[in-house]
Amino acid sequence: xxxxxxxxxxxxxxxxxxxxxxxxxxxxxxxxxxxxxxxxxxxxxxxxxxxxxxxxxxxxxxxxxxxxxxxxxxxxxxxxxxxxxxxxxxxxxxxxxxxxxxxxxxxxxxxxxxxxxxxxxxxxxxxxxxxxxxxxxxxxxxxxxxxxxxxxxxxxxxxxxxxxxxxxxxxxxxxxxxxxxxxxxxxxxxxxxxxxxxxxxxxxxxxxxxxxxxxxxxxxxxxxxxxxxxxxxxxxxxxxxxxxxxxxxxxxxxxxxxxxxxxxxxxxxxxxxxxxxxxxxxxxxxxxxxxxxxxxxxxxxxxxxxxxxxxxxxxxxxxxxxxxxxxxxxxxxxxxxxxxxxxxxxxxxxxxxxxxxxxxxxxxxxxxxxxxxxxxxxxxxxxxxxxxxxxxxxxxxxxxxxxxxxxxxxxxxxxxxxxxxxxxxxxxxxxxxxxxxxxxxxxxxxxxxxxxxxxxxxxxxx
Length: 462
Fold this sequence. Notes:
Blueprint: H1 2-25, E1 30-32, E2 36-39, E3 44-52, E4 55-60, E5 66-68, E6 71-73, E7 76-82, E8 91-99, E9 105-112, E10 122-124, E11 130-133, E12 140-147, E13 151-154, E14 159-162, E15 167-169, E16 177-178, E17 189-195, E18 205-213, E19 221-227, E20 233-240, E21 245-252, E22 258-264, H2 275-279, E23 282-285, E24 288-292, E25 300-308, E26 314-322, E27 332-339, E28 343-350, E29 354-362, H3 370-379, E30 386-387, E31 392-396, E32 403-410, E33 416-424, H4 426-429, E34 444-447, H5 448-453, E35 459-460
Parallel strand pairs: 2-9, 11-19
Antiparallel strand pairs: 1-3, 3-7, 4-6, 4-8, 5-7, 8-9, 10-12, 12-17, 13-16, 13-18, 14-15, 14-17, 18-19, 20-21, 21-24, 22-23, 22-25, 24-34, 25-26, 27-28, 28-31, 29-30, 29-32, 31-35, 32-33
């Protein structure tokens, strides 16, 4: 009997050792075929291959991530999906896969690309730092917004925005107007704005217009918004060329019907802005254009204006205006000119920066600044011929004073150059030079009627 007990014990030990050996050979394992998954901004689905001899489950920290299946046993293909995104930066989340006994854990990083891998762009192209409104209610201006990301607009309550159906007051904290999702970098979006009420105060109304992405992103753009006080005056349109500046269509407060103006090379100090100094400035009417020539390229100039109240008191404003740099400018040379007293002929030659040009011949405003003549062209651009190639031209005129003007259009845009091409007839060129460099800029008046009468007396033959 004793012998049988010993044999049975030996068999039990052998069986136990055999079971242990089998257990160690079937140890739990879990593996995945990738540790990173990339999904495009448009959204999509990727497959993750799981290999295991155990049951497993998946969890994630992104509620937008779709996983199918989220649990299983043994080998399986798991579909990982994300919807499209408008976020302006990449987003990543983690998949955690673990066996049911917790013995093995695998991590997979899922990254969704940004829709704007080349960088988010959002800017205003028609105003640099400030948009200014006149003092009256419903004074209209606009923002021209160039962006490759969807944006929303916030601002002070005293400004309204046109949403395509009606005018809506802005809010500094809540966006009441946005671009929608269909934005393209090569298409500018014009947003119409206007003042809500008349500003009777002597002080300007000041606020901030903010452009921010509709979706997640750090890009933003801010511009100051100003409604002029009762005696404020600023130019509505400024043409700043390389060597001259013209200002016109004045924005004014509700109390202004005339004003004084002055331009300087540098900013006035408070000590220099005495009543005697300001009272010496020339008085201007609201329908006049002011211009100045002989300026340095790429330099800041200061234009001061002072609205005059009924008691003769001056109320000061000023603007900084910078001439354009004199490099890489589209320009059209005027060559091989012939003039016999009644026939004017010439050739044009575009430079490497030029995609086209405007051109006219006139016999008025012979000594006007480039900027004033550019304003003349700009104001009548529908009637001014536009060309895309260099060419040969002939006009008939019996006026001894004649001038040819070209204004280049920069390549890759519809932006007009900071330079004019100019040629004056020999008769006029024999007169003393009238556009010498000025130590102190002197504003010259031209009425809108003068500009109207200057339009193109000579006839283009070819």
